[in-house]
Write a structure and sequence with these properties.
Blueprint lengths: L1 H9 L3 H25 L4 E7 L1 E3 L2 E18 L5 E6 L6 E2 L4 E5 L2 H26 L3 H33 L5 H30 L3 H26 L2 E3 L4 E6 L6 E2 L5 E15 L12 E6 L4 E10 L10 E8 L10 E10 L3 E5 L4 E3 L2 E8 L2 E13 L2 E6 L6 E3 L12 E7 L2
Parallel strand pairs: 1-21
Antiparallel strand pairs: 1-20, 2-15, 3-10, 3-14, 4-6, 4-9, 5-8, 6-7, 8-10, 10-13, 11-12, 11-14, 12-13, 15-19, 16-17, 17-18, 18-19
Helix pairs in contact: 3-6, 4-5
Organism: Orenia metallireducens
Keywords: Coiled coil
Family: Belongs to the membrane fusion protein (MFP) (TC 8.A.1) family.
Length: 420
C-alpha cells in the first residue's frame, strides 16, 4: 500500500497529494471494517421448536415408607407354644398355621360337648317316636295298681278316722293313715296322666323344649371346636414376619406375639399444606424418589385426610407404590412430587431460552442463521419449561443455549436441534 501511495505522489502537487492520501486512507479503513464484519465468528447454539403442550406444576414434599398393611397378632387363647413354624423375615400366606398352643383342655371340652349332644338328640328322638304298645300296657297296669292302692288307703283312712274320733287312737297314729291316702291319690293321678300322655303322644311344647336342648348342645359343641381350632394360630393376611416376640415353649398371653407386614405394595405417609390440599385428588399419579435407593418410582394417591394434623398443621396424604422386589423398606425416607395443576394446551418452550432485561422477558428466534430478539409474555413454569402467552408462534425455533451471550442480528451456528 505504501508503494502505491509513493508512486501516486510522484506526479502530484503538495495540495493534491494530501487530498489523494486522505481519500485512500478512508477507503482503506472502510474496506478493513467490511473485512472484520465478514470474518466475525458465529456463536454455537442449540435450538428448540415452539410447540403446544400441557404444562404440569408440582409441589415437593417428603414422606416415609410404611407397609401397605400390617397386623399385630394376639392369640385368642392363652397357652404354651407347642409348635412354631415361622421365623423372622419369613413369608406367609393367609391361612397358614404359624404356631400351635397346648390344647389338652380344649380336646376334653369337645368330647364333653359331643356327649351332651348325643344325649339331647336321643331324648328328642324318644319323644318323637312315641310310646310303644308294651309301654302303654305297663302304664295301664301301673294305673290299676295305683287305683287299688288308693282304695286300700281310703279304707284304712276311714276306719282309723272313726277310731280317732272315738279317741281309741292318738292323733299321731291317725295322721299316718291320712298321709298314706294323700300319697296314694297322688300316685294314682300321676299314673293316670302318664297313660293319657302316652296315648296322646308328645305335645308341641315338649317337642319344642327338647329341640331347644339339642340346639344348645350343638352350640356348645361348636364353641368347644372353635376354641380347639384357636390353639392353631393362623395368618390373617399374607405378608412377611416383621417381628417375632415368642419362642417354642414360651407362654402366649394377651400381648402381640408377632407382626405380619405386607410389602409388595408400600404406603407412603406424607403431608401437604393448606394451600395445596385442594389441588390434589385421590388417584393422581405421583413421582417418588428414594435417596437411599437412588431410584424413582411411580405411585398414586390413595387417601387425603380432610382434617389437618394438629402437630404438623398440615393434611395427611397416603400414597401407594408397587414394590414387587421388596427393595423399598419400611421407614425409608422419600421425596414426593405431587401434581398440583395441569394447564390447557398452550405454547411451551425451555426456560433456558428466556433472557430478562429491565423486567422484560425476551427470546431469540432463528431466521437465516441469525438471532432475532423477540419480546414475550410468559405464564406458569414447571420443571424447566415455561408457557408462552404472547410473542411466539408454533413451529418457530428459539435459542435454548447461550442466549445470554447473543445480540439482535448475531450470526449463529446450530449445533443441536429437536423437540425437547
Amino acid at each position: 500500500m505504501l508503494i502505491i501511495l509513493t508512486f501516486l505522489f510522484v506526479g502530484c502537487s503538495k495540495t493534491d497529494k494530501k487530498t489523494v492520501a486522505s481519500q485512500l486512507l478512508a477507503e482503506t479503513n472502510e474496506a478493513m471494517t467490511d473485512t472484520t464484519t465478514s470474518i466475525e465468528s458465529s456463536i454455537n447454539v442449540e435450538v428448540q421448536k415452539v410447540k403446544k403442550d400441557k404444562l404440569t406444576t408440582y409441589v415437593q414434599v417428603v414422606g416415609e415408607a410404611r407397609p401397605y398393611r400390617e397386623v399385630e397378632l394376639v392369640p385368642d387363647l392363652q397357652g404354651r407354644v407347642e409348635e412354631l413354624y415361622v421365623a423372622l423375615g419369613g413369608q406367609v400366606s393367609k391361612g397358614n398355621i404359624l404356631l400351635e398352643l397346648n390344647c389338652e383342655d380344649e380336646k376334653i371340652a369337645v368330647k364333653q360337648a359331643e356327649a351332651s349332644l348325643v344325649g339331647a338328640e336321643a331324648n328328642l328322638q324318644d319323644v318323637l317316636n312315641g310310646s310303644s304298645k308294651e309301654e302303654i300296657t305297663k302304664l295301664k297296669a301301673n294305673l290299676e295298681k295305683t287305683k287299688s292302692d288308693m282304695k286300700i288307703a281310703q279304707s284304712d283312712y276311714n276306719r282309723y278316722k272313726k277310731l280317732y274320733n272315738e279317741e281309741y287312737i292318738s292323733k299321731q297314729s291317725f295322721e299316718k293313715y291320712e298321709q298314706q291316702l294323700i300319697s296314694a291319690r297322688s300316685s294314682y293321678q300321676s299314673a293316670k296322666q302318664s297313660l293319657i300322655s302316652a296315648e296322646a303322644g308328645p305335645t308341641t311344647e315338649e317337642v319344642k323344649s327338647l329341640k331347644a336342648q339339642v340346639a344348645n348342645a350343638e352350640a356348645s359343641l361348636e364353641k368347644a371346636k372353635l376354641n380347639l381350632s384357636r390353639t392353631e394360630v393362623k395368618a390373617p393376611i399374607s405378608g412377611i414376619i416383621s417381628s417375632l416376640n415368642i419362642d417354642l415353649g414360651e407362654q402366649a398371653t394377651n400381648s402381640p406375639i408377632l407382626t405380619i407386614s405386607q410389602l409388595k405394595k408400600t404406603r407412603i405417609k406424607s403431608y401437604v399444606s393448606h394451600s395445596n390440599v385442594n389441588k390434589i385428588r385421590i388417584g393422581d399419579q405421583v413421582q417418588i424418589y428414594f435417596p437411599a435407593l437412588k431410584q424413582s418410582f411411580l405411585g398414586a394417591i390413595e387417601g387425603v385426610s380432610p382434617v389437618a394434623d394438629e402437630d404438623k398443621k398440615s393434611f395427611p396424604v397416603e400414597i401407594v407404590v408397587d414394590n414387587p422386589d421388596y427393595i423399598i423398606k419400611a421407614g425409608m425416607y422419600a421425596e414426593v412430587k405431587l401434581n398440583t395443576s395441569q394447564s390447557s394446551e398452550q405454547l411451551i418452550i425451555a426456560q433456558s431460552a428466556l433472557v430478562e432485561e429491565n423486567g422484560d422477558k425476551f427470546v431469540y428466534i432463528v431466521k437465516n442463521n441469525k438471532a432475532h430478539k423477540v419480546k414475550v409474555e410468559t405464564g406458569i413454569s414447571s420443571e424447566g419449561k415455561v408457557a408462552i402467552l404472547a410473542g411466539l408462534n408454533e413451529g418457530e425455533q428459539v435459542v435454548v443455549t447461550s442466549a445470554e451471550y447473543l445480540k439482535n442480528g448475531a450470526n449463529i451456528n446450530l449445533i443441536g436441534q429437536g423437540d425437547k
